[in-house]
Specification:
The chain has 541 residues and is α+β, with helices and mostly antiparallel strands. The chain has helices spanning 7-16, 154-161, 204-214, 218-226, 257-271, 315-324, 337-352, 385-398, 413-426, 474-484; strands at residues 37-45, 52-59, 66-73, 81-89, 96-101, 109-115, 125-128, 138-143, 167-170, 229-231, 242-243, 246-247, 280-284, 288-292, 357-362, 430-434, 440-447, 450-457, 488-492, 497-503, 507-515, 525-534. The strands form 5 sheets. It has a 7-stranded mixed sheet. Strands 10-9-8-20-21-22 form a 6-stranded mixed sheet, covered by helices on one side.
Length: 541
Amino acid sequence: MNHRIDRRSLLLTGSLGLGAFAIPGFAQTVATARPNGFTHSVASGEPSVDSILLWTRYIPVDGGAVELKAELSESADFAKIVAGGVQVTGPWRDHTAKITVGGLAPGRTYHFRFVAPDGSFSPTGRTKTLPEGPVARFRAAIFSCSNLPFGYFNAYAHAAARDDIDLAIHLGDYLYEYEVGTYPSAQETVPGRRIEPASEMIHLADFRLRYAGYRSDPDLQKLHSLVPMIVQWDDHESANDSWEGGAENHQAGEGDWNARRAASIQVYREWMPVSDEPWKAYDIGTLATLFRTETRLLGRTLQPDITPLFKQADPLAALKRFRDGAWADPAASMMGSQQEDWLNHAMRASVKAGQRWQVVGFGTIMGQTVMPAAATGWLAPDASARTRGYISAGIAAAQLGLPFNYDNWGGYPAARARFLRSAQTLGANLVVISGDSHNAWAYDLAQDGRPAGVEFAGHGVTSPGYEAGLSLAPKIVAAALVGANPELKWCDTSRRGYMALTLTPDRVVNDWIMVDTVRTPSARASVGHSASIARGRNVMA
């Protein structure tokens, strides 16, 4: 489909986003009639011990090129500028600016701002470099699955209100590509949470307009302005269930997949405080190494699909052939051989350097998860034929040890085994963090009958989980899932929020923070569950 907008519409709506009209009093501000200046506050990312990447967006009155200056100070009044940088931006990069500033001190908090040629200042942000040497404690807030029409970003608001967060991590699905009324449906959409464009994100202008709307959200802006964020994409930044050669939500009539993929990557790099490196390692003093990965667009092979097997004369025999053949194919890859090799060497370097923990961020869940036989009783009387088929197929697959989700690591068992065996061989103290599922999970990861590490998988900021399609009590669903899956130690299938991961030299603790609601603005939340791992154990305590 095509979605065309003129240049003035792009500047006006792209600068502000219609989502901004949900902000009390926003419609009365002069900004709606003056689509220029600093339009989307500030953000920071890519922290190291002596540098930080700073982000903003500025549109001059003439809509052309402009040179922006970044300033950093150790005080909020900017009495002394300690570092800075300059960049020329313009319409070719949607007026966004990213300046990496070096020469900073490790573990230091800085205030930053941008200065326009007319002397105007951006809003002030706060950021922090990574520490050097021994570190007693480091805490990261971890997010995924932020679908704006499903509700308010209360998880961001709660995290922004804390004073104990050193770093934010976003594991993907920062936004969603669907056209209005698709996901969520018109009935599910929370009033006031509109997105633009109304069409699906396909072309460059579509992606830019959608990011502009999301980045107008006040809670997201607040979080970005207070802590550095390390980000990686998952599928919805391009299209649902994406892989190197296509996506479930990319149809033949929507043009060339490579063009859509390229547009999604370009705009992601324009609008997010991220470097152009597809994957990267970050040392948190001698405490840990955090690994940012890419598991969607560059090396992932096509996901398996067991649906056609149930149309064969003997579905069980077909499932067995699949299990022993295509499913176990070592060529099936989430990361591609280049990234697999990089991650192996980077983890080896981390272990050799004496880093206490190796924390790897993946877009999707690694823990083994099969469909419980009891799932037949989960269905509502009016459940669709598609839902019933999905459940029955999952139960049949489980009888042969097969998972029900092939878009996560369950569809790539040989690649999973390579990664976990590598961690075991290296002697890594492995903590996997992941998103994508909208639900909360805690796994003890094992390979060849031996512990390999733990996985803390995060629930969505707003995107609904199992509770959206089931009428059964969530605790019953969770108990059945845990009972059917030896690696799974705990799960919550009904609440939204974020994770707070606390690293110390001898223990890692993960809290699943549950917000009270996403239907209305509220920063109220509580700890729904905590899990921990002691160094040297590779299983949860």
